[in-house]
Amino acid sequence: MSQRFTVAAIQMVSGTDPAVNLSRAAALVAEAAAAGATLVVLPEYFCLMGARDTDKVALREVFGEGPMQEALARMARDHGVWLSAGTIPLECPDPARVFNTSLLYNPAGEVVSRYDKIHLFGFSGMGERYCESDTILAGTTPVKVETPFASLAFGICYDLRFPEMFRALAPFDVLILPAAFTAVTGEAHWETLIRARAIENQCYVVASAQGGEHQNGRKTHGQTMVVDPWGRTVAELKKDEGVITASIDLNVVQSVRARLPALAHRVL
User: Fold this and answer.
1) Which residues are designated catalytic?
2) Which domains does the chain possess?
3) If you average pLDDT over every residue of the chain, what do you get?
4) I need a labelling partner for 31 at 20 to 30 A (CA). Which of 7, 25, 150, 261 fits?
5) Nearest to residue 171, comparing CAs of 254, 82, 86?
């Protein structure tokens, strides 16, 4: 296994038209690949920030088929990258809801892992209200996957607030976190939580965000980040759409864990 590879984290300001969002995502993935990325990460809801919460239910696909999944497979295959495909709505047992799902594609365009968001966001106050459980069915299984370049663990947005989920998967080299944090909660907590998860798991965190004011009126925090195992910010994009790249050095992971063997010192 090579000790270094390049990751690209994509930030978007997705709108209400899935075709436009897919086209924009494809262009940004192409930009990331041209920058030499081995792994490219899209944000949560890259495909749709709907006018209504129920819009994503109407957009849902069956796992393994559908235009969104075909487009994502093509992006990975055409550019020869590993693609962590943000989140898309997939069919679930409840016809009124969906799974909010993150798929990982290999460079052949094949799905090698699936993670259904476990923790569903709820917030009321400061002029905002969100209740994801109205339209999303929670997943049940944390996911970690071994790739030829690194061990990857997965979370989605609100999962960031539940460190026990990632502790159950440790150790891993990189935590992938697509997100659409609200402007209110992101300003207060986003960077602190990202750095905390990196420090306590002694891993890189790649957090790809939505970052701006959307057609539906929602405002997201942005601040797409790559943070290293010592809690240092390696790359960052505050607002608007774009791509950041960073070198992931597994020697840094090993060095931090050797000098401060906190994971080995775990008791509970």
Assistant:
1) 44, 117, 157
2) 4-259 (3.60.110.10)
3) 96
4) 150
5) 254
